[in-house]
Amino acid sequence: MSSSELTPRAVGKQSIWEMSGKQTNTKDGPARSGSDGMSNQTNDFIERRRFLAASAAVPLGVAVTAQLASASSKTSSDPAADNNKSLIAITFALEMSRDYPHRGMTEWDYEKGNLNAETKQYTLDACRQVKAKGGRIHCFAVGRVFEQKSIDWLKEIVKEGHPVGNHTYDHVYILSKSLGAVQKRFRRAPWLISGKTPAEAIAENIRLCELAIKERLGIRPAGFLAPGNFDKGLTGRPDVQKMLLSLGYSWAGTRYPKVNVRSQNLSTANIDAIVSIQRKTQPFVYSSGLVEVSGYPPTDVHAFRSNQWKLDEFLQVIKKNVQWAIDNRAMYKLALHPSIMYVEDPEFKTVNLVCDLVNAAGNRAAIVDLGTFARRAKLRR
Question: What is the tally of structural domains in the chain?
């Protein structure tokens, strides 16, 4: 890791949301892979201090807006308002994943945004294929992605209409109540968050990711996706709900229900148990007004990294999930990590399966961004 990556990232007091109740006013090529699978990109990173100095001059527009014209429409053509239509979303978390491309690789926990060439290419190719079939992929980037010298691949994704949202700068644990639990990286480099409360460190990390997106892509982040996700989402954590709202995010993806199915060689009963979770975890609105855009099992992490499923098993469950959502006019979010999928599904069978199922359903289903999910949840409140 280069010394420039360890430069303290303090920002002005106005950039930190105060947990005491004060709120800021919101205003509307490729990496070279080494033999160990990690990217040797020391010279490709922007010096953190210089990046922050340049970013400080950029106004913080934190109002979250959808980047797809179809998703921002308030007319009758808005799929959110069509209760006869199932809404399907494909999401990519743009981060590196431990144990990929090889088991035992854990250094990614400290370099989540140091994307290798394969991850970037897979993301770009998947976005192209999904768009060719009439859909979009809603991407969520960790901020350290923007420290890489070239993000032309990501600029192309944005140009083609795929939304990019905030996944925090360092992939932090937003429910943390201690500095040591915020992110493993800060255990190794605690001076980066020295003098801050956990709430301040988390809020700064979210705002810093937004700065990076605005500075390097010239757009506002399309929503917020919490790293990890939690069984109960933000239920019981009104402080975190308030933080996200104060930062300008009207919706967030934080919930991922527990799944008890751990076995390989899935039975019909196993699959039915997974699919049944959808009925209980549709997007909803917290009493604070924040919209929860829930995730649904299985993710690629659950299937491949944790349980070593075969691709055919994963596809079988995804097909059942999508079909259930279409038949019940429900919402379904498929959460994937290209850093895992380029290894487990190099032929893009998963995203193409989803597109084909939606297209076969005709006007009964549409692939949308998560902002559309949030609008429907509000309409149904």
Answer: 1
